[in-house]
Design brief:
This protein has about 180 residues and is mainly beta. Helix content is about 5%, strand content about 60%. The protein is elongated, with a radius of gyration of 24 Å.
Length: about 180
């Protein structure tokens, strides 16, 4: 964004984790941040910033610790402006003409995600898990939706001692990742 190394963001986070019973819990968090960008009026297209704030949040529930449903909004700039100075022409005597102004840095569209994950512990050493996630407005682009699903097998131990059939099954595990 600018010349210099003193860009920094300060965040505050609030978290919730509450057990409704020994099998069911709710959780969530909210983050808000303020960013200060070191910019240069001489060597950068971005010449300044004002009031850059950002936020992210999520809420979820867990059943028996391993099965989870979550909904959230990813990091997004919610307020602030960026000042710019862009060269647009050169005069006959070699001077550069600039267009200067300010533009809102706030995201116009915010990404939201819904996820579901399930885990089954078959034994102390072997577990299976499945997950799915639907992402809406990925990277803040309206109608840029994606989904991802997958299955994982987890084994704690030495693989050479597993039966051959189980090794074949482990090789079939896959993920599907598509973009619309």
């Amino acid at each position: 964004l600018g010349v210099g190394e003193n860009h920094h963001t300060t965040y505050a986070t609030a978290r919730l984790n509450h057990n409704l019973s020994n099998k069911l819990s709710v959780n969530g968090n909210y983050q808000v941040g303020y960013t200060n960008v070191e910019s240069s009026k001489d060597f950068s297209l971005i010449t300044g910033d004002s009031g850059l704030t950002s936020q992210s949040w999520n809420i979820g529930t867990a059943y028996k610790v391993n099965n989870k449903l979550t909904f959230g909004a990813t990091y997004a700039v919610t307020n602030g402006t960026m000042d710019y100075k862009v060269p647009v022409a050169r005069t006959l005597d070699g001077n550069v003409l600039y267009n200067e102004g300010s533009v809102s840095a706030a995201s116009q569209v915010q990404e939201h995600n819904v996820g579901l994950s399930m885990n089954y512990n078959a034994s102390e050493k072997f577990s299976l898990s499945a997950f799915g996630e639907q992402r809406y407005n990925v990277a803040g682009l309206n109608n840029n939706d994606q989904y991802k699903v997958g299955v994982n097998a987890n084994y704690k131990g030495q693989l050479e001692k597993l039966p051959f059939e189980l090794l074949e099954t482990a090789n079939l595990i896959t993920e599907l990742d598509t973009s619309s």
